[in-house]
Backbone:
């Protein structure tokens, strides 16, 4: 598995595992209450194969009688697989413990989540998961349930080829234009092989008027058993047969699980090496009965073992092209991804088949993961990415099957396709049942599986998806239908979401009520009238433009299918708008529908006759009745026909088991951390006491006490303390720290004191330099720049002098003491003293920053000058009220309130004298 992450401030990247690798084996192992993952689980699986579980995703959502489960048992015969007593799904039994397939997958997802959290340093709660395109409803819902067990919210399940196509497109966005470009993505991984034809094109959204690139899946082909795992199993069996032929032991190697696990691991290594080399030795020490195994294997031998597999390599590619309806010559490139496409024979077969070079410009392991991360950033809140719309395709068609009673009274089965093969999704569909007047039921099931799977239908499980029972149909009809209310049938709304999971949204009874003008006026409230009036002002009266009535479907419209395509967020919005137009029409549209029947005969009349009729109608004041659409919900009960998803009490029980395993892991991790910390501290203390640098900081008594305590703990750890719990280790560590920390503290003080004293010395030097400059900024020394007062200068000088005296005294006293004596001059004392001096200096520095030179007063302007006249005129305009009230010359400037209070009422003010008096009041005052 590969884990991609996106988080605020972190670009899209692959999260590393504990071994700092980019991919992790999806293996989980249990032994003596311990749980390990990845490579550790694989290593443990060689010794205890029945306790190590891998290659699990093929078992999701399948009952024990599924052909894929039988194939898994054949490949790994040492597993004990039993059926879940309730759901009949796969359960692994190991001794007294049992683990459902969802629990094992959930634990792997928890590990992936922990890698992501370690990589980003943040809590992870949402994810996008990659699935094979051939996953059906049972597999998809089972994976979502497993993610819920892992406390992850699934934003979307994305098909692997769709994720790769998205990743390919976002890095080639500039190459996409209005002309469709076609690519074929070919994948061969561990489990399966698939091929998908996709198109890239710039499409303009009708609603937003924005142009976005769109990648659409046009055709898909796959082989769910052709992959690297099958090749590895065949090579394992070949090595086992060759070992038996050597006759080194009488025991058959195929009967020994541990030997088979060793062979399987070696076969995997050998397969990878033979991809780059023509021959290589298989070597296993002590394979069986302490007998070693060594065999030279050539690439030709390996290819002969997989000869029939290579014949199936091109089938998915041809199937994808056939479904898409495109020829190979219109495909721009055939792009490879998946680890097993590195096999030279596979590449040779594909290159010969298509007659052109293969594109290898994708990271075969990580392309799908990075595409899914981009999709996750698009779906999650808090991120903004460039829009890239994806349109996936339905592989397995879905249909609705129901019984209909004919005119003769006979009942026959009717099938209506909901989501056809290669239809794009997410998508909404509506089926209308307009002949049923009583409670009934219908079935949702896969359609045309034989054409899609060609005899391999059992791998998908049950063809039926759900049985839906509708109740209270007759009751709702009887209560709702009246003389002016007509039933338009029962509508069932279905949804295929962007994860490819099918669901029934809701079922409702649709009614049309004919409302006359008088009834409408009675029912309509004042607010509704105001709303309708405003609506008509902006949109016009739709009653003047009656819509044409849609012709009924063939056969009385027993089941009318109304398609509502949707893709991505834009598609969802358009689907909702279309849904609203179908069921919840505004008043003007309903009125238009109501007038449709009357409008139809008018289609053949001339314009003159229409005008005459309209005039006559206006005279007679004839008003057409209004049609109002009403909706009544119908109770529905959905019973899933495929594997029941893990839910309810079963889900709670699984969650409880996983929680118990998590608690065990946390306790184990805490114990290991405490034990390592105690052992490290004991060893570190013993080593430091042997060094003169530390020993000189301790008294003889302290050294003896520490050594004695370390010896006691070491002896206890190797005898009775090996099985102690975390609390015991932590208490002993605290006890030892209490003894040794005093010595460590003295050593730290002696080591850090010279650094702190040097910092104090630099601060004193800087303060003295500032003091010399500050003395030149007083009123006595520099009248024009009198920034500081004499008191401030004296205060700073006193602070510097006292700091120097304190330092010299304390350093001299500290030097008289031995290194193991209590510390007199601590680093904290020095930093506190630096803080006091720094405060005094900063006060003066800030005052210097805020100081501004005083501006000399400017003489008043003379009135006879042109500029003064202009100012007079301006001020006349600004303060005309003064001139009107006093009847004297205009006031150039308001007098201070103090002067105004002292003046007599109605006294005339001389503007020139006013300015002269104010300028002479204070030498510091400046008119700006």
Residues:
């Amino acid at each position: 598995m590969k884990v991609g992450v996106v988080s605020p401030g972190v670009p899209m990247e692959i999260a590393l595992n504990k071994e700092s690798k980019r991919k992790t084996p999806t293996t989980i192992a249990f032994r003596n209450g311990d749980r390990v993952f990845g490579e550790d689980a694989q290593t443990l699986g060689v010794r205890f194969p029945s306790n190590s579980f891998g290659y699990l995703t093929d078992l999701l959502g399948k009952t024990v009688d599924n052909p894929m489960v039988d194939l898994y048992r054949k490949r790994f015969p040492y597993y004990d697989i039993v059926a879940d007593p309730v759901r009949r799904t796969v359960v692994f039994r190991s001794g007294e413990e049992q683990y459902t397939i969802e629990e094992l997958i959930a634990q792997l997802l928890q590990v992936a989540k922990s890698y992501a959290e370690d990589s980003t340093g943040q809590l992870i709660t949402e994810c996008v998961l990659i699935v094979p395109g051939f996953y059906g409803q049972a597999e998809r819902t089972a994976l979502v349930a497993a993610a819920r067990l892992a406390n992850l919210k699934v934003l979307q399940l994305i098909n692997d080829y769709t994720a790769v196509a998205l990743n390919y497109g976002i890095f080639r966005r500039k190459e996409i234009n209005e002309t469709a470009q076609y690519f074929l993505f070919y994948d061969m991984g561990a489990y399966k092989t698939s091929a998908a034809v996709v198109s890239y094109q710039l499409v303009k959204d009708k609603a937003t008027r924005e142009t976005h690139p769109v990648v659409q899946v046009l055709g898909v082909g796959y082989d769910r058993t052709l992959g690297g795992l099958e090749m590895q199993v065949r090579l394992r069996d070949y090595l086992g047969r060759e070992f038996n032929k050597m006759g080194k032991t009488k025991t058959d190697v195929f009967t020994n699980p541990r030997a088979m696990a060793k062979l399987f691991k070696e076969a995997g290594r050998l397969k990878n090496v033979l991809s780059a080399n023509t021959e290589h030795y298989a070597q296993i020490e002590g394979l069986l009965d302490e007998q070693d195994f060594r065999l030279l294997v050539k690439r030709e031998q390996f290819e002969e073992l997989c000869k029939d597999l290579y014949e199936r390599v091109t089938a998915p590619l041809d199937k994808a092209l056939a479904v898409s309806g495109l020829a190979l010559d219109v495909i721009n490139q055939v792009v490879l991804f998946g680890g097993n496409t590195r096999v030279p024979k596979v590449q040779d077969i594909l290159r010969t088949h298509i007659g052109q070079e293969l594109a290898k410009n994708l990271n075969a392991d990580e392309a799908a993961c990075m595409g899914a991360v981009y999709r996750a950033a698009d779906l999650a809140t808090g991120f903004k990415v460039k829009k890239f719309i994806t349109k996936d395709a339905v592989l397995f068609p879905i249909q609705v099957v129901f019984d209909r009673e004919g005119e003769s009274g006979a009942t026959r089965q009717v099938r209506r396709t909901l989501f056809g093969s290669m239809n794009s999704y997410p998508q909404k569909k509506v089926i209308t049942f307009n002949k049923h007047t009583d409670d009934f039921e219908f079935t949702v099931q896969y359609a045309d599986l034989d054409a899609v799977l060609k005899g391999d239908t059992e791998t998908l499980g049950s063809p039926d998806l759900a049985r839906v029972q509708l109740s209270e149909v007759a009751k709702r009809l009887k209560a709702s239908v009246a003389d002016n209310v007509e039933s338009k049938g029962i509508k069932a709304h279905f949804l295929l979401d962007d994860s490819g999971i099918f669901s029934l949204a809701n079922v409702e009874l649709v009614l049309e009520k004919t409302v006359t003008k008088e009834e409408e006026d009675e029912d309509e409230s004042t607010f509704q009238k105001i709303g309708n009036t405003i609506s008509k002002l902006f949109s016009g009266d739709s009653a003047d433009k009656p819509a044409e009535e849609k012709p009924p479907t063939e056969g009385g419209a027993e089941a009318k299918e109304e398609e509502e395509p949707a893709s991505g967020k834009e598609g969802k919005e358009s689907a909702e708008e279309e849904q609203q137009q179908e069921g919840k029409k505004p008043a003007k549209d309903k009125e238009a529908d109501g007038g449709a029947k009357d409008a139809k005969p008018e289609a053949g009349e001339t314009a003159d006759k229409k005008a005459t009729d309209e005039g006559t109608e206006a005279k007679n004041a004839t008003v057409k009745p209004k049609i109002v659409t009403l909706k009544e919900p119908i109770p529905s009960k959905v019973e899933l026909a495929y594997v029941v998803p893990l839910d309810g009490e079963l889900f709670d029980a699984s969650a409880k088991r996983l929680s118990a395993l998590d608690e065990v892991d946390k306790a184990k991790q805490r114990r290991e951390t405490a034990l390592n910390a105690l052992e490290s501290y004991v060893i570190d203390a013993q080593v430091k006491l042997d060094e003169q640098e530390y020993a000189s900081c301790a008294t003889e008594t302290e050294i003896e006490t520490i050594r004695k305590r370390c010896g006691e703990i070491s002896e206890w750890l190797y005898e009775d303390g090996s099985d102690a719990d975390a609390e015991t280790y932590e208490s002993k560590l605290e006890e030892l720290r209490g003894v040794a920390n005093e010595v460590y503290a003295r050593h730290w003080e002696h080591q850090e004191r010279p650094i702190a004293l040097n910092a104090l010395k630099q601060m004193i030097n800087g303060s003295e330099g500032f003091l010399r400059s500050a003395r030149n900024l007083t009123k006595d020394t520099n009248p024009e720049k009198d920034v500081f007062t004499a008191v401030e200068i004296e205060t700073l000088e006193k602070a510097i002098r006292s700091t120097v005296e304190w330092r010299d005294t304390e350093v001299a006293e500290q030097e008289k003491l031995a290194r193991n004596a209590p510390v007199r001059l601590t680093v904290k004392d020095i930093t506190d003293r630096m803080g006091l001096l720094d405060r005094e200096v900063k006060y003066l520095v800030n005052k210097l920053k805020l100081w501004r030179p005083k501006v000399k007063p400017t003489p008043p302007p003379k009135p006879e000058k042109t500029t003064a006249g202009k100012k007079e005129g301006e001020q006349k305009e600004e303060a005309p009220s003064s001139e009107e009230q006093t009847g004297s010359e205009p006031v150039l400037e308001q007098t201070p309130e103090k002067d105004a209070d002292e003046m007599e009422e109605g006294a005339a003010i001389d503007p020139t004298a006013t300015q002269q008096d104010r300028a002479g009041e204070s030498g510091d005052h400046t008119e700006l």
